[in-house]
Design a protein that fits this description.
The chain is mainly alpha-helical and 753 residues long. It folds into 3 domains: 242 residues, no CATH class; 168 residues, no CATH class; 225 residues, Hypothetical protein af1432 (Orthogonal Bundle). The chain has 30 helices and 10 strands. β5 and β6 form a beta hairpin.
């Protein structure tokens, strides 16, 4: 199973590194389709939009249709100007005014046409002047019915657009446009040519000296009726330029190229195509390197747990659990990257160390697991040392701050600390320290206005996401805890803390049904706490195990001596095998009671293991004496086991026996305590009860001293009250002398087997 988990961890980490490449290979992106994965850049990537989008841009510009506005005032203005000319000439003729020079200047100023005095005199002297003017106005109106541009360059605009086949005309008092073929358009030059041609065809009999200046005036007053709409065309051209920009865009490791579920545009497809080409060029070199790195990290982690941690640890490392936790973390974080468009700094990677700590696996395992997890995750988020350090710093802070939490609400403390460290890391990594140092070389020349832009550049949105990632790690860890507890049949720190409460129903029931056993459990808890602190065992687990280790005695409390307050012992009338069976059954019954009460498995295991496979010597010897001629099977008088599988179970076994034996001492003093504890330990060792747990000789020495100290403190003497005193001779005054150093304790402090 362990090998399978390692293979799964390696496989999913490698796939996480190349999931976007695999997706783009098997499901090539197409325009106007939604993408089902967030595509991120795994390396520094420059997208040259000028090169990639040049063909698309040219096509878009060639398909672009310019917009013109129909200018009705220009049409009216053309007719009005010629009518003003006709009115001025007619009025001058009718009134027989003098001063032709003044009229010439007036016409030149108003019409912009230079006429000589002779031209004006001949026009005035023309006898059929009204018909001439009316005919020209009629011809001009017919010409203005066409769509007239000033010149062909109007079709090109500012962007140099050529080869247009149609234009859009915005009509007055209308929100829409009308498309017209370019062939239907005429230029102002052609319109004037047509006007002149028609005038000369119609008035061919008019003296050229009269007709020519009038034609010049009519041509001058004719203006185009279509005007290039600069504002609308600029807007449309800017839209094309935004859609097909022409600059080089730089992407860093982890930057989002295309977010999840986005409808792809032409530019998006070209971006992904350029990114794929870059990946293909690097993938053959990168895949073997990444695979080797992941393989090395996983192998090293297993060797650390097996060769380093297991040799110096009291309990066997939970290999399968830790590997499963790494797999789960990789899946969750890769899901974040693949389905959410948020920055990589928002990754809640600190759920990994928090879960290890909350499930009581220690700081050393949490630190090693965090380091390996940070390295694996950095491989598929963006393999840079900044990202690796960012994940590592936050993870180590989570390890340090998460230890010792007792309530779920306290999860806010490590979450806030991780968020703060994450934000600090982003500032340190993104700040332009060279620019800052150049500003503060001389304190007298520091300018705040120069420092503000540098600081603002570092305070990006990444800081916000870094804080969010830290704050989210704690709640996410709490959400995953119940699933892990259920899946691995284990208990978190918060769950165990609930069973420290003596007001729980099971403890109240034990107190009411078996008060002697209850007091015995409290005394064992005190001894176990002292012994556990001495050798660095899990004191919380020890104390809870001590509280519940004898709950099975509630079934038949009177058959256990601590509950026989009236002095009657029911075992006096029972056969030894029956008595032994009742005593043996309290372990199995305690196990079932604990399970029914919802005790965590780690506590229920202590109930089952706290007697190991010990022999009930009293009833075994009694049976041997009672039936001297019968074969007494030792297995019938041994507890079913198993033997202690952890240091905590071994300590609980010894403390249970020591507390019970201490009640029978005639002279409870330090010397007797030490002798009793040693004897109990030797008998357990000789019986092989500690063969399946890691309990060293050094631990046993500390263990003996701690138990003796605890027993001496609990059996302290008190002065008798007057009503308790018996008549005795008055004490004789003696010169008391305090012993120096406790030589006896020092001689016996080393425990040898």
């Amino acid at each position: 199973m362990r090998l399978i988990l390692n293979i799964i961890l390696i496989t999913i980490t490698v796939l996480a590194c190349y999931i976007s490449d695999i997706y783009l290979y098997f499901w090539p992106p197409l325009p106007d389709q939604a993408i089902h994965l967030t595509i991120r850049s795994r390396r520094a990537f420059n997208f040259d939009q000028q090169t990639a989008l040049d063909v698309k841009r040219k096509k878009a510009l060639s398909d672009y249709i310019p917009v013109y506005r129909y200018t009705a005032p220009q049409v009216e203005g053309s007719k009005q100007k010629f009518e003003e000319f006709a009115e001025a000439i007619t009025a001058f003729k009718n009134k027989k005014q003098k001063g032709v020079e003044n009229l010439r200047k007036q016409l030149e100023k108003e019409l912009g046409v230079q006429l000589s005095v002779d031209n004006i005199i001949r026009i005035i002297q023309y006898r059929d002047l009204k018909n001439l003017f009316d005919g020209i106005i009629t011809i001009e109106e017919s010409i203005l019915q066409n769509n007239i541009l000033r010149d062909p360059q109007g079709l090109m605009g500012k962007k140099g657009l050529i080869g247009k086949k149609s234009i859009e005309i915005q009509m007055p008092n209308s929100n829409g446009t009308v498309t017209h073929p370019v062939d239907d358009l005429i230029t102002l030059e052609k319109a004037r040519f047509l006007l002149e041609e028609k005038i000369r065809q119609l008035f061919w009999q008019v003296d050229k000296r009269v007709l020519d200046p009038v034609v010049r005036v009519s041509l001058a007053t004719l203006q185009p009726n279509l005007k290039y709409d600069h504002k609308e065309n600029e807007r449309r051209l800017d839209k094309i330029n935004r859609e097909f920009p022409s600059k080089v865009v730089s992407y860093h490791q982890g930057d989002v190229l295309i977010p999840f579920r986005k409808i792809l545009s032409e530019k998006d497809v070209l971006l992904l195509d350029a990114y794929q080409k870059l990946n293909i060029a690097e993938i053959y070199r990168e895949v073997p390197w990444n695979f080797f790195t992941i393989l090395f990290l996983v192998v090293f982690y297993n060797l650390f747990l097996t060769k380093i941690l297991a040799n110096g640890s009291r309990n066997k490392p939970p290999y399968r659990f830790l590997l499963t936790l790494l797999i789960t973390t990789v899946l969750i974080l890769n899901g974040y990257l693949a389905l959410l468009p948020f920055p990589i700094y928002g990754l809640p990677i600190c759920i990994l160390p928090m879960l290890v700590i909350f499930l009581n696996h220690g700081k050393i395992i949490a630190t090693a697991t965090t380091m390996i997890g940070a390295m694996l995750v950095s491989l598929f988020t963006g393999p840079t040392y900044e990202i690796l350090l960012f994940f590592t710093f936050g993870g180590l802070v989570a390890v340090l701050v998460s230890s010792g939490l007792r309530k779920r609400l306290q999860i806010l403390v490590p979450s806030v600390m991780v968020g703060f460290i994450n934000a600090l890391s982003i500032i340190v990594f993104t700040m332009d320290w060279q620019a800052i140092s150049s500003q503060i070389v001389s304190p007298q020349t520091i300018k705040i206005e120069n420092l503000v832009p540098i600081v603002d550049a570092a305070l990006t949105s990444d800081i916000i996401w870094a804080v969010i990632g830290g704050l989210a790690a704690g709640p996410l860890a709490l959400m995953l805890l119940p699933l892990l507890e259920l899946g691995w049949d284990t208990a978190s720190t918060f769950k165990l803390n609930r069973y420290m409460d003596l007001n729980r129903p099971l403890m109240k029931e034990l107190l009411s049904k078996a008060p002697g056993t209850y007091q015995h459990c409290m005394a064992v808890a005190y001894l176990a706490q002292s012994a556990g602190e001495a050798i660095g065992a899990d004191t919380r687990l020890l104390r809870i195990g001590a509280y519940y280790h004898d709950v099975g005695k509630m079934i038949n409390p009177k058959f256990f001596i601590e509950n026989q307050f009236d002095g009657e012992n029911p075992h006096d009338v029972l056969e030894p095998r029956e008595s032994a069976k009742i005593i043996l059954n309290h372990v199995r019954r305690g196990m079932r009671i604990g399970q029914d009460a919802g005790l965590p498995k780690v506590v229920a295991d202590l109930i089952l293991e706290h007697h190991g496979t010990q022999l009930i010597e009293y009833f075994y010897n009694l049976a041997a004496k009672t039936y001297p001629n019968s074969t007494i099977r030792e297995e019938e008088f041994r507890y079913p086991g198993p033997k202690p599988q952890s240091v905590e179970a071994a300590l609980l076994m010894v403390c249970d026996s020591v507390e019970a034996a201490s009640r029978s001492l005639l002279e409870p003093n330090r010397k007797e305590f030490r002798k009793m504890v040693r004897l109990i330990l030797v008998k357990r060792i000789v019986d092989g009860q500690f063969s399946e747990c890691d309990l060293s000789t050094r631990d046993l020495s500390k263990f003996v001293t701690a138990l003796v100290d605890a027993l001496e403190a609990s059996f302290h003497s008190r002065i008798q009250y007057p009503w308790q005193e018996k008549k005795k001779p008055l004490p004789v005054k003696t010169n008391w002398e305090v012993a120096k150093g406790g030589e006896e304790d020092q001689k016996e402090s080393s425990f040898r087997l």
